[in-house]
Design a protein that fits this description.
Chain B: Keywords: Amino-acid transport, Cell inner membrane, Cell membrane, Membrane, Transmembrane, Transmembrane helix, Transport. The complex is a heterodimer of chains A (381) and B (305). With 381 residues, chain A is of the alpha/beta class. Chain A has 14 helices and 14 strands. Chain B is built from twelve helices and four strands. The chains are: A alpha/beta (381), B mainly alpha (305).
Chain lengths: 381, 305
């Protein structure tokens, strides 16, 4: 009992203390994340990251001299609960919301925020249509777009590695085809200069088990590199079957390939040495903001986050804080305008600058490679 | 030419899996005039049973008798266990609705398919399961400058062997005559003293057993299995059955192998064909249904009279 009384005392004195520092009302920012459901781990890490970011901001004087208050709503990673969570945040009067993980979950919420004129910053929604479909004036995202890694791959393959004969394989679905087409587009200047050549460009059928026909064709095209831009189950089968057929060309997978099941399906012996284009993992970020943030996060939770996505949630808060600071206003229209024009926001993943449509400019991708233990390692040529 | 030959071998391998699954479809259709939609999921069940056997029991056999006996044990186990599952499915889902006509039977089969798929997911989980690589032989044969995994060759010959045994049972034995008689006219067969119930049980046991065997061989060959994979195989095998002539055992074999080869050549030789492979496959199904509904080998019309 005594300890509870002590906690209450400390809490009250803390409130009193905050009250003295921030005489003004807090700025409420919502976080919509999958706290429960099949991606609960992502949601919980996102909450921890955003809360640590909020503490850092408050320690440094808050936004416009006011403290930040984070209100969390659970969308359980399904579109129906996503709409409910968005309603909840809107009715609690948040000035902006960080929402959410997964494109199909984010979409209904983004529509609600748009209708109620609340700025929405997505942190794990990469589908192209979110920004390039119908126009949304209040929607932004700190993560990349599915197709922007095509640009990264094209540059990396030709300029860094000097691969000339390039094979691109996708699965004819939105994500895979999007990345493949974008890669092709960004390879075109190199092709005109004669520095690259697309020797294979075709789709496989997802859900099949035998890819020997496609792989025989791939081998006959004699590529220097083989870029596969779709999901892990087929990637695992493809890598295994290719290596068993004696195809040794370097394999590069897009960011939906690397995970535990990819390693299991392909087999560790075949996975070692495969490349992946993907968002930098938390342990490989070293901007000044990252060092500050990870120190605070580690002090509280003992380790840094294991997934790249929660970092983008923290970055969403840093971006919003800077935009509100620049706008000197918490009106949604002013915030949205400031988000579009600001050039001074520093995030954990580097500078945060948005395009007119709300996409992040110059999202960093990195080349990773599987090591002998089946772990991803940053690749430096 | 070497590449063409290699693609041909690829096609025949895929095709022999289709053919094994198609056999079960064709037999059940021949006797019951029922498209057994649960067949694809029985195939999945077989691959999971074989997986469980390999993980839990084969190490013991492999240590004592060698790799191939473990493999053979898993195939046999899946064959027998799936035969049991087939009997159970017949008892639960088909026998109560035989007299209600063909449509309730088809709906019941669809329901069974959904049930099986979800039951497999509930028991083994939604993730991919991977056959243990140290329990599957990886030796290769060299043949005409091609490197063929020994397992591929074994699977090919095993499925061909099974098909010939099936053909022999149905065409040359007395019991086979009873099966054919039931297929032609069930009431007349009953009047002539044929135990129709036994014939029905036979096709519902052997069909799933062959499907299970295909499932476990498929798992060994491609390593990774998932609860929903039966749907795709079911569709392909169904196409193969139509292609070869439904209700006709050599037809199912020819249809399966032919479908595998057509698919492979499309993916291998048409520019951008990989993306269109399944589109072409089902286009063939539609064309066959329009222009030659009896399939390539067709039903033996003379016997129908």
């Amino acid at each position: 009992m005594k300890s509870r009384r002590l906690v209450v005392f400390l809490f009250l004195s803390a409130v009193f203390f905050w009250g003295q520092v921030f005489a003004e009302e807090p700025i409420r920012i919502g976080l919509q994340a999958p706290i429960t459901g099949s991606f609960a781990i992502e949601g919980q890490m996102a909450r921890q990251c955003v809360e640590v970011a909020a503490e850092l901001i408050n320690e440094q004087g808050g936004i416009l001299g006011r403290p930040v208050e984070i209100i969390v709503a659970d969308d359980a990673s399904n579109p129906r609960d996503s709409a409910l969570a968005a309603q909840k945040l809107i009715s609690q009067g948040v000035v902006a919301a960080i929402a959410s993980y997964g494109s199909s979950v984010t979409e209904p919420a983004a529509d609600l925020y748009e209708r109620n004129r609340v700025v929405c910053v997505a942190y794990g929604a990469t589908a192209v249509r979110l920004t390039m479909g119908k126009e949304r004036r209040y929607f932004f995202r700190t993560c990349g777009r599915d197709d922007s890694q095509g640009e990264f791959f094209a540059r990396f393959a030709v300029e860094t590695m000097g691969w000339r004969r390039i094979a691109i394989m996708h699965d004819n679905q939105t994500y895979g085809k999007g990345v493949a087409e974008e890669t092709k587009k960004y390879l075109e200047p190199y092709i005109r200069e004669g520095r690259a050549e697309i020797v294979y460009y075709d789709a496989i059928t997802p859900g099949d088990q035998d890819y020997s026909a496609a792989l025989t064709k791939l081998r006959e095209s004699n590529p220097d590199v083989w870029y596969y831009t779709a999901y892990y189950p087929e990637a695992g089968l493809l890598v295994r079957q290719a290596r068993e057929m004696g195809i040794t060309v370097p394999f590069v997978g897009s960011n939906a390939v690397p995970n535990e099941d990819f390693v299991r399906i392909a087999g560790l012996e075949y996975v070692v040495g495969t490349f992946m284009t993907q968002e930098p993992l938390p342990q490989d970020l070293n901007t000044p903001k990252a060092q500050e943030f990870f120190a605070a996060y580690r002090a509280k939770y003992g380790d840094i986050p294991s997934s790249p996505w929660p970092i983008y949630a923290a970055d969403a808060l840093f971006a919003l804080a800077q935009a509100i600071e620049n706008a000197k206003s918490t009106k949604p229209d002013d915030i949205a305008q400031a988000m579009r024009t600001m050039e001074n926001a520093e995030g954990i993943t580097g500078p945060i600058v948005f395009t007119e449509r709300g996409d992040r400019k110059g999202v960093p991708y990195a080349m990773y490679r599987y090591n002998e233990k089946g772990q991803l390692e940053l690749f430096t040529p | 030419m070497r590449v063409f030959f290699e693609q041909l071998v690829n096609g025949v391998t895929v095709g022999s899996f289709y053919a094994l699954v198609a056999l079960g479809y064709s037999m059940v259709y021949g006797v019951m005039k029922l498209i057994n939609f649960a067949h694809g999921d029985l195939f999945t069940l077989g691959s999971y049973l074989g997986y469980t056997f390999l993980v839990w029991g084969a190490a013991w056999i492999t240590e004592r008798a060698g790799l191939w006996w473990g493999v053979l044990g898993a195939i046999l186990f899946a064959f027998l266990a799936n035969a049991g599952a087939g009997i159970l499915v017949e008892r639960v889902a088909y026998r109560p609705v035989y007299r209600a006509g063909r449509l309730p039977l088809v709906v019941s089969a669809l329901g069974m398919s959904i049930f099986l798929q979800n039951a497999i997911m509930a028991v083994w989980g939604p993730r991919f399961q991977v056959y243990p690589s140290d329990l599957v032989p990886v030796a290769s044969l060299r043949f005409l400058g091609l490197s063929l995994p020994l397992l591929k060759v074994v699977i090919l010959f095993l499925s061909l062997g099974v098909m010939f045994v099936m053909y022999w049972i149905v065409e040359k034995t007395e019991f086979g005559a009873a099966v054919r008689a039931t297929a032609l006219d069930r009431e007349m067969a009953t009047l002539l003293g044929i135990d129709v119930q036994r014939v029905i049980l036979f096709v519902f046991t052997l069909g799933p057993a062959l499907g299970g065997m295909a499932g476990v061989m498929n798992g060994m060959y491609y390593r990774s299995i998932q609860f929903s994979m039966g749907w795709n195989y079911g569709l392909k095998a169904f196409t193969a059955t139509i292609l070869g002539g439904i209700g006709n055992i050599p037809g199912a074999m020819v249809g399966g192998v032919l479908l595998g080869v057509i698919e492979t050549l499309l993916a291998g030789y048409i520019p951008g064909g990989g993306a269109w492979k399944d589109g072409f496959t089902f286009l063939i199904l539609i064309l066959v249904l329009i222009f030659r509904p009896t399939g390539i080998l067709g039903e033996k019309v003379a016997e129908k009279v």
